[in-house]
């Protein structure tokens, strides 16, 4: 589904919500592309990027296995058939976490907007191998699996966002301006 359609549907009453990522290609992008590219856009920053707002994924792997991270039975079946993969992710996370310099470097790299490749911060941020897998898929460009369904946490839409720049001659002028704005919006 084209993301513009989703934005239109969830922004309309009674929902008044939006997904975190707001890519500039909103008129033509697809949800799978947002996840695969770790798209975020100008307004979401780090807090509301794809990595931090993904809730669940339905993934199809190269061997045809389907994993739905929202379904406990799907996760149990995947653990039976691909336990080696989950164990490998856990061991890799342990190895990363055992190196304080590497942990610090990863945290520093992902504290700012970073849409470059695999979301390796998943190895630092999560213990559960399903969470690691779900989050390392973000930015993987389809190399780890096909994203069939992506569920996001939603946020309230902010329709009126304004910014302005004032050049004031004194702190008192700032006080008067601030007081006037408060009175205009009904705060006394």
Task: Provide tags for this entry.
188 residues; alpha+beta; Uridine Diphospho-n-acetylenolpyruvylglucosamine Reductase, domain 3; two-stranded antiparallel ribbon; 9 helices; 5 strands; 43% helix
Tell me the quaternary state: single chain
Question: CATH fold name, please?
Answer: Uridine Diphospho-n-acetylenolpyruvylglucosamine Reductase, domain 3
Strand content: 5-15%
Tell me, rounded to a whole number, the average pLDDT: 82
Named at the architecture level, the CATH assignment is: 2-Layer Sandwich
Number of distinct beta strands: 5
> What is the CA–CA distance across the termini?
47 Å
Tell me the overall shape: elongated
Brief rundown of the structure:
The protein is of the alpha+beta class.
Layout of helices and strands, plus pairs?
Layout: H1 3-11, E1 17-19, H2 31-37, H3 50-53, E2 54-60, E3 66-68, H4 72-81, H5 83-97, H6 100-109, H7 122-125, H8 129-136, E4 146-152, E5 154-156, H9 171-184
Antiparallel strand pairs: 1-5, 2-3, 2-4
Helix pairs in contact: 4-5, 5-8
């Amino acid at each position: 589904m084209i993301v513009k359609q989703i934005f239109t549907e969830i922004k309309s009453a009674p929902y008044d919500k939006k997904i975190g990522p707001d890519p500039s290609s909103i008129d033509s992008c697809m949800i799978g592309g947002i996840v695969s590219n770790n798209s975020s856009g100008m307004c979401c920053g780090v807090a509301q990027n794809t990595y931090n707002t993904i809730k669940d994924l339905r993934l199809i792997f190269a061997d045809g296995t389907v994993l739905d991270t929202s379904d406990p039975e799907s996760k149990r079946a995947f653990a039976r058939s691909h336990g080696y993969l989950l164990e490998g992710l856990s061991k890799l996370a342990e190895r990363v976490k055992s190196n304080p310099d590497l942990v610090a470097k990863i945290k520093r790299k992902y504290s700012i907007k970073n849409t470059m490749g695999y979301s390796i911060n998943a190895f630092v941020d999560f213990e559960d191998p399903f969470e690691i897998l779900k989050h390392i898929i973000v930015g993987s460009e389809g190399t780890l699996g096909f994203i069939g369904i992506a569920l996001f946490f939603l946020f309230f839409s902010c329709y009126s966002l304004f910014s302005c720049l004032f050049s004031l001659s004194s702190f008192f002028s700032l006080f008067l301006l601030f007081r006037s704005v408060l009175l205009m919006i009904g705060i006394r």
